[in-house]
């Protein structure tokens, strides 16, 4: 039975795989295993199995993101996700992927995703084809997103090479996220484009734990700081970020709440990827619900905090 649209949770962090052949699925599986990502079988995704999990978990809507590394695959992926939102308008939202190694193509895809695909927001990789989000070549992209007051979901590259024999999704994703957001801070991205609403995956990686260190030491004269970011700006700009709960709730919520207010914690389950199972997602969700550092009403609000950022999606739920 479908979850109630008025009370069900909203998941910012859902992935998907466009239709592929069995041969390509097998090839991807071997590539993952070669990268120490030892998934036991080729991964399969379907909207039907995802909706079945959402119903079981009491999740009304999930925002979909997938960020292929070529422009043609990226656009095709966005098209497919848009078709899913059209088919299941109250169950899925679209975070259109952007190719952030190519500002010109980014701007074209922002326009296409908005005018043709009806995207709710955008999704970017912390390091896309070796270009980090703080790179000044992206100024025109952030300027456009700032004008649109866009919501941008920031996710690390979970398919990066392994480190010390362990796959990237285990801990490297947290470090890449942290490096990227700190670089954006020092590049002045958050200062120049205050209207972009950034949602950072996995409770911001290691960033909340290090936010106090950044505030304490980050504006000291021995730290390279070409944009002259101040101590006060470090605290204020980090506090503006939104953080999702995906795969980090047991130990991630406490430091996250030292960096941002409770209403900037949003629910994410990291659904639709080989490193997540129904069991791990449900365990993480239970850790959110059982968190003792907030009053019960604020814990329950985490499940729908993100909806205020997406008025079009909220309107679909009301229909």
Account of the 3D structure:
The longest helix is centred in the N-terminal third of the chain and has 17 residues, at 71-87. The protein is built from 13 helices and 10 strands. It has an 8-stranded parallel β-sheet with strand order 1-2-3-4-7-8-9-10. A two-stranded antiparallel sheet has the order 5-6. The protein has 319 residues and is an alpha/beta fold. Helices cover 44% and strands 13% of the residues. A hairpin with a 2-residue loop joins strand 5 (127-128) and strand 6 (131-132). The protein starts with 8 loop residues before the first strand and ends with a helix. The mean pLDDT is 96.
Based on Cα principal axes, name the global outline: globular
Counted beta strands: 10
Spatial separation of the terminal alpha carbons: 18 Å
Summarize the amount of helix as a percent range.
40-55%
What is the radius of gyration computed over CA atoms, rounded to a whole number of angstroms?
Answer: 19 Å
**DSSP strand content:** 5-15%
User: What class, by secondary structure content?
Assistant: alpha/beta
